[in-house]
Structures are given as structure tokens and as C-alpha cells.
Amino acid sequence: MENNSSYWQANLRIIATCLVIWFVVSYGFGLLLVEPLNTIRLGGYKLGFWFAQQGSIVTFVALVFWYSYKMNKLDKEHGIEE
Amino acid sequence: MDELKLYTYIAVFGSFGLYFAIAWWARAGSTKEFYIAGGGITPLQNGMAIAADWMSAASFISMAGLIAFLGYGGSVFLMGWTGGYVLLAMLLAPYMRKHGKFTVPEFIFDRYYSKTARVVAVACLIIASLTYIIGQMKGVGVAFSRFLEVDYGLGLGIGMGVVWVYAVLGGMKGITYTQIAQYVVLIFAYTIPAIFISMQLTGNPIPQLGLGSTLADGSGVYLLDKLDLVVTELGFKEYTTGQLGNNANMIAYTLSLMIGTAGLPHVIMRFFTVPSVKAARSSAGYALVFIALLYTVAPAVGAMARLNLMNTIEPTAGENLVYEERPQWFKDWEKTGLLKFEDKNGDGKIQYTADKATNEMVKVDRDIMVLANPAIANLPNWVIALVAAGGLAAALSTAAGLLLAISSSISHDLMKGILTPDLSEKNELLSSRIVMTIAILISGYLGLNPPGFAAGTVALAFGLAASSIFPALMMGIFSRKMSGTAAIWGMCSGIGITMLYVFMHKGIMFIPGTSFLGGMDPNWFFGISPNAFGAVGAAVNFTVAFAVCRITGPAPIEIQQMVDNFRTPMGGVNAAHDH
Predict the structure, then answer these.
(1) Whole-model pTM?
(2) CATH number, domain at B134?
């Protein structure tokens, strides 16, 4: 039970980290901060626009794989992998 | 028969032949194979199947068109429909896979130990899935009538027949392998024209980079800057900054689509097909890669289609296209009624502006952008034929997934679970095939006679998934103490307030004239449109459920132990048992 609860706490921490990044790239950079970011250019893209239509999606992909990698490692550390 | 028609027949019927061959090879023999493909799908395969399942006629045909006309405002669809997978991968999929059941309502029944909860979940699932299928069936009918020039009804009938063969025969197993083939067809059909157009406009073959490049006409101007200039000159909102409503609306809209995506049962149930928790986690990642391939190309398709359209109508500044000299694709789409021109000032030329009084392009249906795009850009006929096959693949793969969600919830949850628990496996399999056949007939009928509210139903499907299913599942996993009573109260109040808001603004059951607040923007709660209200419904669901749980007490201890069990990968994934 002890082991389980520390496992669950670690899982929640990883999820929280991911969701903070998830929020920042989409709601933060893509929506709330879009105007100041649009003053910066990324080639032909305004940066805020780029986050809203490209950058956020690419970050989502990376997040899901990172979560999967971290969780597999966590399962091993706690000796509860399948 | 002209060349284009010949190529289209080859592409469409060639792809159908492929789906049939796969269906025959992957017939289902047991309920386990029928519902969850025997639980032996690899993460890579599942990722591809999820992508095809998820990307519907709306993603393939409508989304780039929406972006073309909304510009930056269209970002809510891009972020909303991909960001939901982050939630699904971390908050739902691994735990639901560990628990190891066949359907979403079954998980809700186990977790909330309540038949009422199961019935509420089945009802949400059926309404959400059926409304979703109508759109797919319409997509099939439109693709057939435009590209093969057969009657809309006949096209719909052919589509229904194709789905019937592989979905009823193969169940989840047949659907999974066909979806993999359909993904390949649809991603080629989507990206090849985009690569051609990106090359033409910018000289860069990668559309995601082309969108940020300079134009190939030697002017050195960036494509997006040019587009901003062209549209603002005609009085439209600037492409790269024009919002969809206000800021609050864009945030609520994005959030509603994200949690709605994560709560759609036909997507969730695909995670039951993999052998382990680890595989469930990674298949979410693969799914998102395959989805992102299309979703990062879509903004390029949208922007380039808009620029091409503008350039066709006004080839050089001040020199508008003479109507009599309009290109062939223009005439073709005029025949369908989706494109309409009205010479208001009688000069015989086409003026396209944001001002209603002088605009002569009185109708430009957003849905034609992707389908007309290759023709607008003068691409070879085989590319146009491929787009037809791709649109059909997108519609058929999603329809099949939805049909399976409906048939499994009726035969497994309602019949086997509640009404006739002693149903044998053989009879359950037979009944799910019969239910699926009936569901195909109903959705075909609805596609042929689309109810007046068809346009408003997407809001309803996402609203229901976001305000009822997602919060119920998430609380079931992350709150050990959440009780059945509290969850039912939460689900019902979440749905209640969302439906109330949608009906208030769009009419009761979408019947015109019954909306007591009108579709009027000033009456919107903080400027949030009815389509974006699912996020508010979900917040209500969470609040009510936690309040009721405090008052009526926590879930029984054995339920809390069950939660502990599905939070931990070890202990053997219940190999989606036969019961």
C-alpha cells in the first residue's frame, strides 16, 4: 500500500508537469499571449500564430511520448511493470 | 467516360476492394474479437486505427475549409482536436485498459456500481454517436454525387453496403485492419495535393514549412503576409489574427473540443484492443503522430486554398475575373449549388468582398475548399481522384467505429448487462450484428433525410461527451471516494445545463422559432457560443458531483480497492475477460 501510494503520487507529479506544458503552449502561447508573441517572427510565421496552428500540436505529440517513457520507467522502479 | 472519371472509379472501387479483402481475412468469431479485436492489436497498428477512426469527413473535408475562412480563429479546431489526446493518454486510457472491459458504459457500471449510471452512459453514447454518423453519411453521399456523378441516394446506399460488409462481418477486428488501410489512403490523399500546391506557391515541398515561406513568384513576400494583405484589402478580417468571437469564447471552445475528444466513446474503446497498459500509453502517442501529420498540413491547405481562390477571382490587383471566362471547377461547383455568383453591379466581372451589399460571391460553401483545391491549383487528374477516395476513407472509417460503439453498448450493456443477462456468447454476437445492421439503416435514413438540426448536432455530440462522459470517467479514476449517486447527479446536471444552453440559443431540439434567447451573440454567457459550452457543462458536472459526494458519503471500500487496482499496471491486465 505504501509503495502504491508513492507510485500514485509520482504519477500525479508527472501528469501535472505535462499538463502545465500542455496549458502553456496552447492556452498560453496560442491564445492568451498571442498578441505579444506575434511581434516576434519565425520565418514567415508570427510566433503566436505558429504556436496556435503548428507548435502546440508538435508539443502535444512530444508530451504523450515523454509521459509514456516516464511512466514505463516509474513502473520498473516500483517493481510493478506488467 | 473522361479521364478524371475513369481515375476516380479506379481509386474509389480499388480502395473498396481492398477493404473487402481485409474484412474477409479478419472475420470475427467471438465476442472478444467482435468488441475488442481479441485484445491483440499492437500499439503502432492501434495508433493508425485510432487516427482513421478519429479523423472523420469533418477533419478531412471541412476543417481546412473552416481554417481557410477563419484564419487564426480556426486554431481552436487544430488545438482542440489534438490536445484532447494529451488528456486521453494521461487521464483515462491506461487505467481503463487496466480495468479491462469491453465498453465505456461497462466501466462506468463497475466503477459506480449502478445500473442507472450505465443506462445514462449508454444514452449519452448513442446520442453522441448517432449525431456524428449523420455527418459521415452525408460526406459519403456528397463525395459520390460530386465525383462519380451518381445520385446522392445511390451513393449513400453504396457507402452503407460497404460499411455493412466489413463492420458486421469483422466487428472490431475487421474494422481495425480496414481502418489501418483507410488511414494510409486518406493521409496520401490529403498530403499529396498539399505538397503539389506548396511547391507551386512557395517552392517548398513540405506544406508545414511552405506556409512559413516566401512566395515563389520572385517577390520575396512571405505567403502569410501576402494573404493578410489580400484579405484585408477586401475588408475581411486579417488572416493571421482574426479571432473566433472573443478571447473567452476561443478558450472555452478549445477546452470543450479537448475534453469532448477525450470523452468520445468510440475513440476510448479503441484503447481496449491493445494487450497491456504500456501499449495503451504508447498507442496514444502513435495515434497523435498520425493525427498530427494531417492536422499540421491542414493550416497550410487552408491558407493556400484561400490565397488561390483570391488569386483566381482577382488575378492582378483591380483586374477581376470575367464571369464568362471562369474556370471549369467553378462551373462544376456551381452545379452543386455550393458556389453561387450574382452579378450585382452588372459589369460581368466577379467581385468578392466582405461587404454584403457589393459581394457577388453570394455563396462559397466552406466544405468545397479541400475537394476543389486540387482543381483550383490545376493538379493532374489522378490527384483529384485520390482526394475522392481519401474523403470516402475518412467518412467510412469513422462511421464504422461509431457503429461498433453503438452496437456494443446496446447488445453488451443494455441486453447482456441489464435486460437479458443469460444471453449466450453466440447469441450476443448475433445480436450485436443485428443491432449494427439496424444502426446502419437508421443512419442511412438520417443521411438521406437529414433532420433540420443536422448542422447543430456536432455541438451536441461534443457537448454531451465533454459535459457527461469525460468528467464521470476522470473522477472515477482520480477520486477514490467518488460515489455512484454523486456521479449520476454530476452527469445529469452537466448534460442538463449544456443542453439547456444549446437549446436556448438554437431552438428546442433545434426546431426553428423555439429558441427563446435567439442565436444572438449579446445573450451569450460571457460571449461563449453554444458550441463552446461543453467546458462550462463539465465544470458544473465536477462541482455538483463533489458537492453531492460530500453530503451523501463516499463510495464503498471495495470500490476504492478496485480504483487502487486499476491505478497500478501490475497484477496482470485483466485480459478483457469473457463473462
Answers:
(1) 0.92
(2) 1.20.1730.10
